[in-house]
Amino acid sequence: MAASAATLWAVNGTVSKVMLASGISSLRLSQVRTTGALAGFVAVLALTAPSRLRVHVRELPYLALFGIGGIAFVQWFYFLAIHRMAIGIALLIQYLAPLFIALWARFALHEPVRQRIWIALALALTGLGLIVDVRHGAKLSTAGILFALAAAVTYALYILLAEHAVGGRDAVSLLAWGFGFGALFWAVIAPWWRFPGHLVGARVSLLGHLSQQHLPFWALMTWMIVPGTIVPFFLLVTALRHLPATRVAIIAMLEPVVATAVAWAWLGESLGALQLVGASVVLTAIVLAQTAR
Length: 293
What we know:
single chain; mainly alpha; two-stranded antiparallel sheet; 71% helix; globular
């Protein structure tokens, strides 16, 4: 389930980049994705088990943090990052999240962490330096890197909150409430009556090697919401019932690998030799960190 979720998210990265190129903002794209997923999860529960939507008042603050900090923000920061640089690099930086989870375990939960976590952290920073080629000056968007780092922090928050919550609530109702708070947050920040509705029916180029092909914007929205959001989020949260957060984070590292391949085949994005070395170092650091659970 975790591997399938990572694969679907990887494909969705390129679909989202095509949508961003059409003129829609990262904020509005996050709003569409969050609200569409909310409608899907609520519809499933309304038809199958409406009683599972019940919630205790004491759960609301936690669900609000999960929905806004762990769902809405991670999508927003990710879209902001991939709009400014290659999807593969953005995801490699975002997948520092497993390192953050391990650091949280050591300093916040006071769990023992092996010495190799510090070696992994040093490797990760070295790898990131190679990716941005600091010796010759950063060739990537500074804002994009910062947004990707913010996505890493919020992604770590999402996994930790989800792991805790699945102990007392099923995956679908947890996601329904989480996306509900996320959708409410975006509705306040960006009222729907200002949404650029003219984009929905427009036909947009698929860019890159598929630039001669066009699809209606609503078709891309449908892909982003159903196989790009509802299905993978459900799979990942359900996987946390069977595996601990650290194991799920390891498996989810399949996403930058698949995303880079998809972006290369579709958009023609590629990494230079030095950046590929840096990417390998970052991935090695993350794997090493997760062996020190």
